[in-house]
Each structure stands twice: as structure tokens, then as C-alpha cells.
Design a protein that fits this description.
The protein is mainly alpha-helical. The protein has 15 helices and 4 strands. The strands form 2 sheets. Strands 1-2 form a two-stranded antiparallel sheet. The chain has a two-stranded antiparallel sheet with strand order 3-4. α2 packs antiparallel against α11 and α6 packs antiparallel against α8.
Amino acid sequence: MSVISGCDGDHAKALEASNTSKSWICEEAHLPLEVVLLLIAGMALIITGVLLFPISTGRLSYYENGLYGLILVVIALQMTTLGKTPFGEMDRSVPLIAAGVAVGAVGIFTSFVPDTFSRVPRLLLLIFLGPGSLALLLRMLLSQDKLRTWISLGGAVFRHLIAACSAVYGMSMVSSLLILWKGLFTTRAAAAVVLVFGVSVVYLAVVLREVYREYPEAGKPPERGVVLSTSQVLMLFMGVLMLLLGWLLIPVNLGMLPFSGSAQLGLLTVLIAIRMLVSGDTPVGAFTRSWPVIVLGMTLSGLGIVSCVIPDILILPLMILIGLTNIVSGIVGLCRVRFRRKAPPILTRLSAAQLVLNVTTILFGLATFVAKLIPGLVVGVILFINGCILLYMLHIIVVLERMQKAMGSAEAPA
């Protein structure tokens, strides 16, 4: 073999390795919605468990409501997007969607308002983690399509699935004791319990990812009941969040209610991250859900979780992040709004709603980025309008989808 041919071979190998690396960076990551939500919940528990050690020595303050609210929001997203409740799987009916939104609203209110609304979220989490996990464990043991099927299928993946589910259900029930009786464990022991719980949830997420890779049909969201896409459910949540936030800012600015600005910014950051992780949707446009996008989304999730749990520690960088995010998102959205002549009225209404939404988004971004630029009461009104417009746009999008399906059915050959 000549030197030249040897160099050509090395060059070809280098090009092949480079192309493999590029394809790994650019290819879409296989990360189903359920796995994303479990990873967020697991990260929240792990980060809280780690932070509870310095909290136990008094080096850091701790905002318990921030963690409770965040976990309730993740549970609510599981209910509304997947039909998976703390007591088992159900069809995505209107009552279930309404219950999920109500749980999410409780979580949002819990995060935003310190020390005035703690009994209801504690009771909900106690029920979800205690009796709910017991019900899931019994269902796994007794149901024909759970443990017995997994054992009969065999393989390392299903052995790990059995272990992961057992660990999550068991640690959920132990964690419910922390909520029921605060003095049962020392702070360090509670930190260890929360940390192990978080590791078990992440373990389950990793195992489920492998299960859904081998059995893709198992990872698809149910098509029974109310049909809302993941992006539509997230739009619903953002609309409810903005409505609640706008409504809360009015009594807060009048001095009638306390308010946790760090938890507000943290929860907004986590929801932005979830959109990135689920659909690749970012404030500057939609991207392929590549691994760099996943890493960025997980990083944002971590920052949001810390801000929810530790008051004021990240409030300045997240104010800049949320402010710039909303300003850029609003400007990009304005550039995409189009009013067409002779367009159907419903499309004209959709364009008008997008215009108002983007203007209010920019105003909220400016108010967040530049403190006291806009009075707090006015910001509350802006956010309330923003939430109303989001819900109105969701209504229009659902109506348009129904119209398209009706037209497709009418055009289909008999």
C-alpha cells in the first residue's frame, strides 16, 4: 500500500467519523413525553435532595411550596397529555382534562403565593404519593398486562422495568410520610429519602425510554377520549398560568398577598424547557429535537427547579432570561403574522389574536427585563389578556382542526 492510498484511507475514515458525529448531533433524540416529564420530576427531587444538605446547616433557605407546586404541575401535565393519573391510566375525557388543569392551577398558586395555601397541596401530594402509589403497586402485581406479562416477556429491559416501578412506588409511599409527619425524619434523613426517590424516578425514565424504543406503540399518547396534541396541552397550561399570574399580580401589588417572584420565574423557565424537550419549540422558532436541544432544555429545567426551591438565588439571571425570551419571541411572532385579503373570518381572527399575543408578550418581556418600566398593576392586566388570548387561540386551532377533518371526510370516496 502506498503512502498516498494510506492517507486517503485515513482521510475517508476521518470523514466517516465526522459525518457520524454530525448525524449524532443533528438527529432527533428519541425522548417520549412520559420520559421527559419523569426526567423533570426526577431532576426536581434530586436537586432538592442535594440542596437539603446545605439547607440543614442553615447555609441556604428553602421554599417548600415551590417544590410542591412544581411536582403538582408535572402530575397535571401527565394527566392531561397522557391520561396517566396517580391512581392509574384513564381515557382523556373532559372531566380528566378539567381535573388535570385544576391540579395544575393548584400547583401554580402554591408556587406563587407563599404560606397562605399549603394545606390543599400537601393533602393532594399525600393522596397522590401514598394511596395513589399503593394502588399503582397493587395494579402492577395483580393486573394481567403488567407484572405477569413483563415476566413472561423476559429480557433485561423488563427486569429493570419491574425494579424501577417497584422502587418508585416504594419511595413514593415513604415520601408521603415526610408530608404526613414532618418530624418523622431529620432534615438530612429527609434529604436522603428525597434523593433516592429522585434517582429511582430517573431510573424509571431511562428504562421506559428503552422499552419505548423496543415497543414504539407503547410510547404513543392515547388517542381515546379528548384529542389534544402535546403542544395544545402546553398552550392550555400557559394560558391558565398567565391568567392566574395576571390575576394574582393585582392583589400582590395592592399589598394584599405575598408573592414568590423566584418561583414564578422558575416555573416559567421549566415550562419553556418542557416545550423544548417535547417538541423542540424555542422562543426563536422550532428546531429538531437533537441532543444539543435536549441538553439545553435539561439545563434550563435545572435552573428553573433551583429557582423554585431556593428563594432569590437565581432571580436576576432568570429575569434576564425570561425577559429576553419573551421580547425575542414576541418580535419573531410579529414578523410572522400575516393578514390575507379574502381570507376566511376564522383565519382573520387567528391572525388578530396572534398580533395581540405577540404585543403582550413583548410588553411582559420588557416589564421583566427592565424593573419598574411598567407598573405592576398594568403588568397584571397584560398577563391576564395574554392568558385569555392563548386560550382563545387554542379554541380557534381546535375548531380549524375539526373543520379540516370534516372536509377530509367529505372529500373521501364512498
